[in-house]
Amino acid sequence: MGGSLGRALLSDIFSVSAAVALLVGATAVQLLPVLPPWWVDLILAAGGILGIVVLRGPWRWLGFALLGAAWTIWRADIAMAQRLPAALEGADIVVTGTVRGLPHAQDDSTRFDLDVETAAREGAAAPVVGTLRLHWYQSEGSIIPDVAPCARWQLHVRLKRPRGLIDPGAFDFERYALSEGISATGYVRDDAANQTTGARWFCADRLRARISQGIADTLGPGHAANTLRALAFGDQQAMDEHEWAVARATGIPHLIAISGLHIALFAGFGVLLVRLLWKALSWKLAPRLTLRWPAPLIEAVASIVFALAYATIAGLGLPTRRALVMIGVLLAAVLMRRARASAQGLAFAVIVLLVLDPLCALSAGFWLSFVGVAWLLFCLDGRGGHRHGWREMLHRKASRASACCR
């Protein structure tokens, strides 16, 4: 009896309704003008857990919504606490940290992100944590040094809290900074003590920079190299305003964000490569291997390894992480030899992403991806072999398009 109850509860947790309820709770927090005190968060968490365990039927989803709200509030409190204290705005601070991502070098400045390790003001430790978005401007008689990915620097900086425009339709940098963990912005001051102190011995951004530079060296300076660097490995820093305008006019900005299409292609390449090697190995050398380890299981492992490797080189942005989670759900079903339900797989991906980072709901891409996939599942899912009206029309068009692409 207890085992069946536990399985039923587990099934409810990983259902579509649970994912929707968690998402409603996380979204409701985004509408609050200020975050509530910690004791409210504690009450919401206790009420959510109690509701999930005690309540039955539709009332249980209220517990999931409360738990989603409590989790989002707690993570938002942590993110807000990492922001630069107001008292340190404009102060001279010495920070030590590692360059994250690919720096953006221009004629008179270089923009880069620095993960802070230590910070000091007037010889005393300063509460500066998280990631800083810095500009290093060129001044008279000085040359901006080469800021390489993964390099460790000691820098004298002046910082301020992230701020953005509030104009309707304008880019909300403050929301972007919160979702990306950027705690402050600022610039590097001219100082003789600014110096590099080494680099991480293992860092994917270094390999990413080499690949991007290799593309630029092969194709030479120009639009082709800049666009290919952005499309292949997400090096969007190389594109200027004119190239972005062309991309928007031609409708390809979604291809520049490394997401599901890129990850699926690379994972598919891994599956094809391993399939050929596995067949050759099992046929010629050890035929019994396929009985011990069936090919679909080996291909699933290879797929996630290739997908993770490519996503790491591409920078592991939010669209990339979202695609990895969704592919991981599919491959987990293969490894566990379970039936794959598309709606439940999508719901599980939503739950995993909200658990890892509930602030991802701030991104428009999060909503576009999941709403788009859910719409396709709704249109193309023929329950009981019977489809009605426009759903049948959409299914036929999708089937014809798939047949034409084979």
Task: Give the mean pLDDT.
Answer: 79
Spatial strand arrangement across the major sheet: 1-2-4-6-5
CATH class of the domain at 86-199, anyone? Mainly Beta
User: What's the CATH H-level homologous superfamily of the domain at 86-199?
Assistant: Nucleic acid-binding proteins
User: What is the CA-CA span between the terminal residues?
Assistant: 50 Å
| β-sheet strand percentage | 5-15%
The H-and-E topology, N to C, reads as: HHHHEEEEEHEEHHHHHHHHHHH
What general outline do the C-alpha atoms trace? Answer: globular
What this model shows, in words?
This protein is an alpha+beta fold. Among the domains are: 2-81; 86-199, Beta Barrel (OB fold (Dihydrolipoamide Acetyltransferase, E2P)); 204-256, no CATH class. Helix content is 56%, strand content 14%. The protein has helices at 2-13, 16-30, 38-54, 60-81, 173-180, 204-219, 223-233, 241-250, 253-256, 260-284, 289-292, 295-313, 318-335, 342-356, 364-380, 389-404, and strands spanning 92-105, 109-121, 124-125, 131-137, 151-160, 182-188, 195-199. A five-stranded mixed beta barrel has the order 1-2-4-6-5. A hairpin with a 3-residue loop joins strand 1 (92-105) and strand 2 (109-121). Helix 12 (295-313) packs antiparallel against helix 13 and helix 14 (342-356) runs antiparallel to helix 15 (364-380). The longest helix has 25 residues, at 260-284. The protein starts with a helix and ends with a helix. Mean pLDDT is 79; it is low at 382-391 and 397-406.
